[in-house]
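Handout, section B. The chain below has 362 residues.
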Amino acid sequence: MRILLVMGTSSGGMGRHVHGLAEGLVGRGHEVMVGCPQSADELFDYTGTGARVVHLPISDRPHPANDLRAHTTLRALIEGADVVHAHGLRAGALCSLARLGHLAPLIVTLHNATPDSSWLGGVYNTLDRLVASKADLVLTVSRDLEERQRQLGARRVEHAVIPAPPFPEAVAERRAVREALGVEDATPLVVCVARLTTQKGLPVLLDAAARLKDTAVQIVVAGEGPMRHDLETNIEERSLPVRLLGDRRDVPDLLAAADVVVSSAHWEGQPLALQEALEAGAAIVATDAGGTAAVVGSGGILVPVGDADALAREVRRVIDDPGAAQDLRAKARARAEALPTVDDAVEAALAQYSLCLEDVRP
């Protein structure tokens, strides 16, 4: 089978997923082409998978000149493909237009929610509708994305199989990690791994922290982003027990040292940080945002999005009840065993490709 994988810019989960697909498909004897920005190829080394790589100027925002060049190249690539699998809304929309007049079925995996405000939100809503009308199959990482595609009239919508990435074990002892953070052994340590962006709902975490002051808890956030200044101001003005650690290379150590791992996100696809927390056997309390429930399952406690009271209440319960914390850790480890692997994702993709090909054959 000749398979064309297409994606735009990525620095994380989507890029790793496409790498796993390309490597797995090539390893099963298929001819694979990857169309992606040069920056993505340099970061994820798609050339090293054995696939043929073509650099496409697909950015994360509309760019008429680059989009036209990408469209022209895509039309030529699609002519030599049996199946086209685009990742991300922008790549999906460009493939929808470039595929006009071709029989190769189009599968689009949507990895993220579209912006819900500003002129850019309007542009992405238009792209959403284009994908829904042109794709033979839309794969989504969360229930809300699935429901939206169905509402827009997509002919077939399924849940995307996204594998959990390999997660390294902690190398530092729990006590050493806490000492390095200046946290005493008896102090409850709550860890949040998140970029400092609106999507992660960190003001809700700070509101929950204000409700937990009487517990002598220490909350640390591992991650960097554009909201740092606003968050630092909020923490300082309210004297909150929260520290922003910036980007960290020792996330496995932090998760292993935590009494609770928390997520306050407004929206998630299939959250990497929570997959890592499951692998670490952490006691998890998270908002029921996007695809979080599909990832965490019974391996953690879910609370409503934006509800600081509920978030604080459940964190307090885990801190105060060692038995409940131990039970959550066991459930997290069990849930981690059930997360899909790269092989699962590749086999699911091949089954979807075959089904779509059957639909277009005369």
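Note. The first strand starts at residue 2 and ends at 7. Compare this with the example in section A.
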